[in-house]
Amino acid sequence: MQKIILIAGPTGSGKSEIALRLAKKINGEIINADSMQVYKEIKILSARPENYFNITHYLYGSISIRNNFSAGEWLKKAQLSVKKIINKKKQPIFVGGTGLYFKLLTEGISNIPKIPDLIRIKARKLNTKLGNDKFYSLLIKLDPLVQNKIKKNDTHRLIRAYEVMTFTKKSLFNWQKKNTNYFSNYKFIKIYINPKNIFLLKLLRLRLKKMFEQGAVDEVKKFIKLKIDPNLPANKILGIEEINKYLGKKISLEQSFEETFIRTRRYVKRQRTWFRGHMKDWTSIFHPNFEILTKKIINLVTSS
Fold this sequence. Notes:
Blueprint: E1 3-8, H1 15-26, E2 28-32, E3 57-58, H2 71-87, E4 91-96, H3 99-107, E5 109-110, H4 117-142, H5 155-168, H6 172-175, E6 179-180, E7 187-193, H7 197-214, H8 216-226, H9 240-247, H10 253-278, E8 283-285, H11 290-303
Parallel strand pairs: 1-4, 1-7, 2-3, 2-4, 7-8
Antiparallel strand pairs: 5-6
Helix pairs in contact: 1-11, 2-3, 4-5, 7-10, 8-9, 9-10
């Protein structure tokens, strides 16, 4: 049975470097499983890999931030990437921190019809006009199943539930009961990179310092000039909001750094909570020496 290697873990845990080291050792190619690293205009703050070292990478920097790129669209592109890699007789390796992407790979996706752009635009505009509270009240009248399943502040999921109900006349949650799994004939090797919190926080601060040194502020300046829809997913990239406050002279550069770090730390906490709840059958592993860690993962892959 064909193996597919999955490498997940919190942001800043060194997943990309580990995947690269692994790919070199086992003749692999890498597929991005991070929802923010797909955007071509934001390279620094999304922590897109800087150097591919002659290893082919897929789905990095391939989507415009102007697009509302869904998890379903990512899955279709991921399928094509796996086929290309296997046709080349190489090993597919998924790496990233977006739990939903790994959930779709291992559990499948509901066959929701493609929502027309006109309806998606109308849904976003209505949400902007009403605000989340009123939009939520309207939504639960249309789709009572949403209540207690989507939080009021989860704008992206509220809009998604609204557009699905509006177009299909069927709740998003009813669609999700019937999933299609395109990878049911593959064997997944599920690896969760799980550094200790103290070690991870040190890595995060060093990484963020490097981002600011590499030009994160200029990257946000360019992003702001594009004037994209505020409801699009790219706006959630860590650091954009905080650096924008600095550019608007609301806070200092040092404060924008610290606020970005605090928000990143909170994001990591949410990631870890999600992983604990959804990845109970994954192998949790870590070592501060990445050479040793890579050897451990190779042993795990070859013995599975």
